[in-house]
Amino acid sequence: MLAYEDLVHQAEKKNLKIGQVVILDQSEQLEQTEAELRRRMAENLQVMRDSVKIGLTGERKSLSGMVGGDAAKVEARRARGESLVGDPVNKAIARALAVSEVNASMGKIVAAPTAGSSGVLPAVLLTVEEVYQATEDDVITALFTAAGLGVVIADRANVSGAEGGCQAEIGSATAMAAAAAVELAGGTPRAGAHAAAIALKSMLGLVCDPVAGLVEVPCVKRNATGATLALAAAEMALAGVKSAIPLDEVIDTMEAVGRQMPCALRETAQGGLAITPTGRKVHADFL
Amino acid sequence: MGKANVFDLLGPIMVGPSSSHTAGAVRLGAMARKIFNGELAEARILLHGSFAETGKGHGTNLALVAGLLQMKPDDERISRALELAEEYGLKVSFAKTDLGDVHPNTVKFMLQSPEDRQMEITGSSIGGGRIVITEIDQFVVEIPGDYHTLVLLHQDLPGVVAQATNLLATAQINIAQMRVSREKKGAQALTVVETDQAIEPAALALMRKLPSVFQAMAIEPLE
Lengths: 287, 223
Known about the structure:
The complex is a heterodimer.
Chain A: H1 4-14, H2 18-29, H3 34-56, H4 70-79, H5 87-104, E1 108-110, H6 120-132, H7 136-156, H8 161-164, H9 166-184, H10 189-203, H11 219-238, H12 247-260, H13 277-286
Helix pairs in contact in A: 1-2, 2-7, 3-5, 3-7, 4-5, 5-6, 5-11, 6-7, 6-9, 6-11, 7-9, 9-10, 9-11, 10-11, 10-12
Chain B: H1 6-9, E1 13-15, H2 19-36, E2 42-48, H3 49-58, H4 60-68, H5 81-88, E3 91-97, E4 105-112, E5 118-127, E6 130-136, E7 139-143, E8 148-155, H6 160-170, E9 175-182, E10 188-195, H7 201-209, E11 213-219
Parallel strand pairs in B: 2-3
Antiparallel strand pairs in B: 2-4, 4-5, 5-6, 6-7, 8-10, 8-11, 9-10
Helix pairs in contact in B: 2-4, 4-5
């Protein structure tokens, strides 16, 4: 089984970032040069940037009409200088909503790791990029850090709501974003692992309960809260706060909790918010 | 690292909202079109399970038709697929169905060409955008669309498979995976061969000439 701890060890030993260790590994596995891998990841990054931009216009409505326009509302409040949480967190919220709204309205996104959780990573990384004036190349390396953790999670657990609930989708995205944020902010590989562990611990047990089975409610807003959670975890880890439970053990716990979760709470729309009176009404009206 | 690579976890670039109900549906449509291998005049699309129940909100209908029109999962015209089908001259209809004990995300395409050639193709979207074609004209198959694929319908007799693989060897086509199944001993058998190289028309023509081969079909992989 893969372990994130091994990636941390290699990075520490070679004095590299996790993202660089992941690039070396994937270069061998995929038989592609580092330049080629970076070019492919740059394409992903460009689609992420585009989906944020499109979503912030607030012009798109989802297929059911339940979702759309919220990213623009949050951005407008920030632009008026009225933000409660301040610019970076406000922007991360707006960006996560933006990408998720684009996804819900059949726009183009990058699954990260899934379509339903596609807002978290771009929201967090584009925000950290702005705060620390990071280069495009560093953002791409951070995307490899996130994806490397994703590969470990997929190996030890899963990234599917039908298997593990929302903790496996937006939870995994939040952990991936936290690790990448620390790296992009100049933190150590070890601090990144702590950030990811803190983030995933906070998502444990989260059920997948989509109203009418759609990737809309509560998914879109959970992307935004996932992004803020990733930033909070990264802030703690950058300050030297450690996770008492190591990341790999938290991932294994996520897998175990997913197994204990009843089927009704794993993407079947037969439990949770999906079967509230309002959830049922939305379902009946739409179908 | 593991079986998955970084681009499985960060990617694909796709039109939302769901990798299984949207991206996978586009790929199912595209694979059905590759198997049909020709112009389309009509498509009757039967939706089973979750495709029937939650398909509407995921744009599954649009995605399946987009695939039949040879679009890829990242094509931003997917949401306009029904209009584009009309422009193309493809008549599309949908119905809910119960295909029995199959994957919840399963669709059956009943396709017809302008010359009234017909074909039935069934497949499932099995997660993360991955698909598998499970039935072609009542024959049970298992085609994920990752490789060039040769489908042979033949008499269940000694040596038929060997003759076919000999032809592949002569054409310098390497076999990646292969599966043989039959109705019963001595009756009709189906061989599905996944290969690393394209199955050239010349090799396919020789297959068709083999005495115990009833049908031979070459299918391109999905991109």
